[in-house]
Write a structure and sequence with these properties.
two-stranded parallel ribbon, about 35% helix, alpha/beta, about 250 residues, 8 helices, Rossmann fold
Length: about 250
């Protein structure tokens, strides 16, 4: 697959024509209101962001990021991040080894920021709404970091990703909530609806999904939050799940 055959604008590779969506517009507005749209200098600090309203949250994410980077083997790998946003994690992965890294998203504003901020990086920044368009390429590792909540079905997502994962490849889900039961997921859904209502974007509650343990059958739980772990200093509340290509 020659990415040079595709349209490139402001450093972003377009696998398909750009289509602005109401979700993208509302998503950017609510993130601005939450102070989650960061300046270029702040993005460069991630995940070690200091003196910011969300610094405590980023401290939790440092834990999961460092675990994942230690996990990656020291060999040539092709790695795909789904929902890369402003690109900080894809860039960090690329800086840690002999990796060929692709970051994909549907948010053009953040993809263009990734191009701008990480101009010296060799990460390929890709706009696509259909991961299957990358199927001529096969990835050794695919990671969905803090983004699986924007996909309505984990099993369907895995089937899509299976078209681009290499033989013996792996898919990793990081930093997203997975609820133990339907009841807990329903409670979380109600909180989400109330939150986006208060924020003035009630339509976003229909684009935020609450996945359950039964949705991730077959996953290896490489990290599972627990009260005991918290006592040992492991404070990140989100699991780390791995799916092997052979088991999807």
């Amino acid at each position: 697959m020659e990415l040079s055959n595709y349209s490139v604008h402001n450093g972003v590779i377009y696998l398909e024509p750009y289509r602005a969506s109401q979700f993208e517009k509302s998503y950017v507005k609510v993130r601005e209101k939450e102070q989650r749209i960061l300046s270029d200098s702040q993005v460069l600090q991630l995940p070690y962001l200091s003196n910011h309203v969300h610094s405590k949250e980023w401290e939790l994410r440092q834990e999961s990021v460092e675990r994942f980077l230690r996990y990656l083997p020291h060999k040539k790998l092709r790695i795909l991040e789904i929902g890369c946003g402003n690109g900080w994690f894809s860039n960090l992965i690329a800086s840690k080894g002999n990796f060929d890294v692709f970051g994909t998203d549907v948010n053009i504003k953040e993809l263009e920021q990734a191009v701008r901020v990480f101009a010296c990086s060799e990460v390929k920044w890709v706009y696509t709404t259909k991961v299957e368009l990358l199927s001529p390429l096969l990835f050794d590792v695919i990671v969905v970091n803090a983004a699986v909540q924007y996909f309505p079905s984990i099993p369907k997502l895995l089937q899509s990703l299976k078209t681009v994962v290499a033989h013996n490849g792996e898919i990793h889900l990081l930093d997203s909530p997975i609820y133990p039961s339907d009841q807990e997921a329903q409670k979380a859904s109600q909180r989400t609806e109330e939150y986006f209502g208060i924020m003035g974007f009630p339509e976003l509650s229909n684009q935020y999904f609450h996945h359950k343990n039964k949705d991730v059958k077959g996953a290896d739980w490489l990290y599972k939050p627990s009260k005991f772990g918290k006592l040992l200093g492991k404070k990140n509340p989100f699991p780390w799940l791995r799916f092997k290509q052979a088991d999807i």
